[in-house]
Design a protein that fits this description.
236 residues, 9 helices
């Protein structure tokens, strides 16, 4: 009686696939644990161990004993949730070109990015925290989608800041020459910000002919997928 040869390549394939999947899950769990530990450490060192923490805590308790202040505190918490929800919707809107993600998962990604940003410079944590909630195939693209959202937020902040600065100069009895200089500078800054926001692809032509710039130039092409109407929506 002939025995069939055992195909070891096939029989070994499944266990290795399962172990690879297990290792990926273990890695992501370890990363989440590191984020949790570092975020807790940051809050402990910079808030609880702060020399003025006890004074500020006692002052906060005395203020919240007033019912009106307590309601204002609850309102602030509610507005924080609204703020994060709007950021989630904006991110979902920018991601729809590359991936679909449900609101609860996107909201968790936003909170994760905020948590990592506590102890990382220049809001880098926002990009790192969000990509772990997406499929590996679209993670690089999602970074540029997040970058587009950050640019829109920066543009709005600077535009409103420019209007505020012009208003401040008007109410501070500044000399006419200084006042009109501020007005002209504010209008110029606003115009440049809006121009580059709606024509961010122009930056591609300024990149040097270097290997690292070639890849960046390729990813900047992603912005061609956003119409001016979509960029207006994100800005609003």
């Amino acid at each position: 009686m002939q025995t069939q040869p055992v195909n070891h390549a096939v029989s070994d394939q499944r266990p290795w696939g399962l172990s690879g999947k297990f290792l990926r899950k273990a890695l992501f769990f370890a990363i989440k644990l590191v984020v949790l530990v570092f975020s807790g450490w940051y809050l402990y060192v910079h808030v609880i161990r702060n020399a003025r923490f006890n004074d500020l805590f006692a002052l906060s308790v005395s203020i919240l004993q007033n019912p009106a202040s307590a309601w204002l505190f609850v309102l602030c918490l509610g507005l924080a949730l609204v703020n994060w929800s709007l950021e989630t919707i904006k991110w979902q809107f920018l991601l729809k070109r590359f991936a679909r993600i449900q609101f609860p998962r996107a909201f968790a990604a936003i909170l994760s990015g905020n948590a990592i940003s506590l102890w990382m410079p220049n809001r880098v944590g926002e990009y790192i925290g969000r990509v772990f909630f997406l499929d590996p195939k679209v993670r690089i693209k999602s970074i540029f989608a997040t970058f587009a959202g950050s640019i829109s937020q920066l543009v709005i902040t600077l535009i409103l800041g420019s209007f505020g600065f012009m208003f401040f100069e008007k109410t501070s009895n500044a000399p006419p020459l200084l006042f009109w200089t501020v007005i002209a500078s504010g209008i110029l800054v606003i115009g440049l910000l809006l121009f580059f926001y709606f024509n961010i692809r122009v930056i591609r032509t300024w990149l040097p002919a270097k290997p690292w710039a070639k890849k960046l130039r390729k990813y900047l092409l992603l912005y061609k997928q956003y119409t001016n109407k979509e960029l207006e929506t994100v800005l609003l």
